[in-house]
Amino acid sequence: MKSAIRTRRPLALAVAALVGIPLAISGCGTTASTSSAEAVKEISVMDYYNNEPDKSFIGDALTACGTKAGVTIKRETVPGKSLISKVLQQSSSKTLPDVLMLDNPDLQQIAATGALARLSDFNISTADFAPGVLSAGTYKDKVYGLAPTVNTIALFYNKDILAKAGVTPPTTWDELKAAATKLTSGEQYGLAFNANPTYEGTWQFLPVMWSNGGDEKNIDTPETAQALQLWTDLVKDGSVSSSALNWTQADVKDQFMAGKAAMMVNGPWQIPALDKKTTLQYGVVKIPVRDSSQTAVAPLGGEVWTVPQTGSKARQAKAAEVVACMNSDENQLGMAKVRNTIPSKTSLAAKFATDNPKLATFTDLIKTARARTGELGEGWPAQATKIYTAIQTALTGKASPADALKQAQGQ
Amino acid sequence: MSLTTDLAQAKSRANIRAKARAKSGSETTPAGEASPSPRSRRRKHRERIYQWLFLVPAVIYMALFFGYPVVKNIVMSFQDYTTATFFTGEAPWVGLANYAKVLSSSLFSTSLVNTALFTLGSIAGQFVIGLALAIFFQRKFPLNGILRSLLLLPWLLPLIVSSAVWRWILDKDSGALNRFLGGLHIVDTGIPWLTSTSLALIAVVGVNIWIGIPFNLTILYGGLQEIPDELYEAGSLDGATGWKAFRHITWPMLRPVVSVVLVLGVVYTLKVLDIILGLTNGGPANSTQTIATQSYDLSFHEFKFGEGAALGNVLVVISLVFAVLYLRASRRSVDE
Questions:
Q1: B111-to-B76, B240, B307 alpha-carbon distances in Å
Q2: Cβ neighbours of B54 in A, within 8 Å
Q3: What are the pLDDT digits (tens) for B199-212?
């Protein structure tokens, strides 16, 4: 008798599941396929701002934009790492949200699938956006996403340590090497950056590579080799810990905050953490260039807002209204200020920089910042992998910078 | 869980019946059983239906959660499967191109060697330490139970947590291990555990050994408990104590358990992903890149799902070899 009960249960479960699945599916279907004639009351949004305070800042802006467009916002925040797999899953089950946020280097990848709508279809103005921001949101000459605010990386320095050593913030590679050597003593390294085998390692290398005239299309060039030589020299002479090979940008910030690195390469999103330590006096300058005649070219970071192809014109129109509203002047300034990011519109930059002196260097860099996918589009991930592979090969001493780049490019 | 027990019960029942049938067949058949009455035939028929009913949930479960992904992965490995495929459903057939590409890549040989070293090193370390601890805990001493359950801790921690902690312990400059060694004046400068191309794999293997000890300890301890005390008593009368007792009593009695532990260990270790991703991300300069991490990279970072699937299948085939070995070994031990 006992065994009979036990055996019946899985059967019953299986039956319940079989009956339940179609019910659940049909349930989803009815809510998703709102006919275009009906008034749209609710818009679904997906983004990866799942940590405070960004979560609330973005949430509030979305709610306000929803109210303006006459819809309520049904928002879902997912961890950054799982956003793309979630988007791919949703695009195959045709359940994409009405408004979707993407990290800018992923935009072309997703736009190439055909899952996104062109913003020009909805009369969203792209006037005045910084060229780098537009190129990040563009796939095959059409704009698919817009970023209200963006970011990049620069050189943070510890004012007290530099003053004590009599070092001024470096502007050229030679000055950087000299300063880093001078600032290295005991447990303190002159500089910290990250060169880990992920896209983050590539991202931190781009400023020196691009400023020196290197290009991602072909990394086997003397310009890129010079840049990689700089990174290699800094690690080899001990002014950067070899732990850089395994650090994340968050680790780099921790080293800087603990006084174990006098300077660091990092972005403005670290500012709230740095400001929590009131004894820490820091300044921000552009990442040095090889020759003082060169212009600093920084990589563009930030998230773009897009309107996926959900099949309902009415919903897409409302979604576009929300995306346009998120990118309004008012929202750009507000979000940039609270989130320590930079407004995307060049006309807002001057005023923003004077109002927020801490972000002035970053604001200046955004004018000339370059999007990672600007040249290669969907081909970027493969090339970014080659770049970090070359960095790791050179920094571990397995090959000279020039050879490491040659090997990686040939792969 | 109950599904698998049902399946096992059904199977063992079927086995017993088959054996009984075989036996009755070999003996001279009594007149009564030569032509079974219609009633008993109906009963047999009903029993067969019950057997199938027992099997159905398990078969559905297997088809849905094992069969489908495996088939899908094999199909995917022959396709140019990209991000666009998810939206359009179009995945052009490319034959063996994905396999050719991943197998001829210069990284494949590195990953293969690393996978072999990682697996061998981990298994050897886990097994030897696990067995030593299991034998140690055979003795009766106070706090034995508590200590033994504390040793399970690495198994209970989420892997992402343990790898984060180990990443901190093994840090070159401020890691606990280097501080400890420095404090004892064993080393002067920090050892780059995770950032040296020659040490990183050793460090990763070390962490994986730490994680795998509880599994080996638990299973081997269970196996040791099964060995009857009388054997040791009898052995000691004949002068077999200490090493001799281990060599001639413990080891032969433990062999079936050992083969289970080793084969399962190999299969579990081959597919280790999160520990390596958490500790080194395959670095520095690919010195901890294994087939599993490379396949993950291809699929989820470079969006080359076809190539990722092809490499994943290579790993499945390697695992399968060990799984077959395991099945053969376990069948033999049942037959014995």
A1: 22, 46, 15
A2: 7
A3: 999 999 999 999 99
